[in-house]
Amino acid sequence: MRKINTSEIEEIIYRSALKAGVTLTDSCKAALQSACKTEDEGAAKFALETLIQNSNVAQQNAMPVCQDTGMAVVIMEIGNEVYLEGDPLPVAVNRAVRRAYKDGYFRKSVCDPITRVNTTDNTPAVLHTEICEGDKVKITFMPKGFGSENMSRMFMLKPAQGVDGIINSIVTAVKDAGSRPCPPVYVGVGIGGTFDSCAYLAKKALTRDIGTHSERQDIADIECTALEKINGLNIGCQGFHGKVTALGVSCEWMPTHIAGLPVAVNIQCHCVRCVKEVL
Prior knowledge:
Blueprint: E1 2-5, H1 6-22, H2 26-38, H3 43-61, E2 71-79, E3 82-85, H4 89-103, E4 126-132, E5 137-144, H5 146-149, E6 153-157, H6 162-177, E7 185-193, H7 195-205, H8 217-230, E8 246-256, E9 261-268, E10 275-278
Parallel strand pairs: 1-3, 2-4, 7-8
Antiparallel strand pairs: 2-5, 5-10, 6-9, 7-9
Helix pairs in contact: 1-4, 2-3, 6-8
């Protein structure tokens, strides 16, 4: 049994939050560069060039890469041989977020859903935990802006709708969103499970590197087909029309009930921010 004090986890999340706020993922940078080469001259290409320039300036000057510094999403995969000691995990996570958003001069965007009164420190974070084998803790930090989060969708399909229904749902979600989630978007998809677990799968899919594919060939085929159809919508960067509406589509799956086919579509804007560390 390996003992880990939650203060160590707090420091990792603190560093990850500061980095994520000012830095796009490497796969996002590469995808934006590729999209810029693919796009013809015009407003969409100019917008892509501006997004790339913005990301470079933000990283060089340690400034937020987007004014919406997001709601903090933390995913932790905890080994079954790990014993956590110290403050309760949510306390340590929220303290890290509170410190990082203050020290990084990040916008505090979390509020009561009814009164709309701001919590003033961007807490609480959304914390997901999974128990897995081993004696390590994998920590993923992702700030999620709500221009794109608001465009996410949940579809409870009939089993008979099958693969075509899944692909149509993904494309429909992006089409209906239009320019509102600041495309080119990254699309996370959950397939299977229940209403709630499917949505989590879609969120987790967004933590994958853009351009990676499922190990299951039939799921990978869904990713590729959906991406092709989305990029045929001609929405383009920031809605200026063009060849690239999405940078990628990533699907995660799990078994579901014989009577259902849940599909969750979690849309991420072009500003993909995600930091992973292993303790």
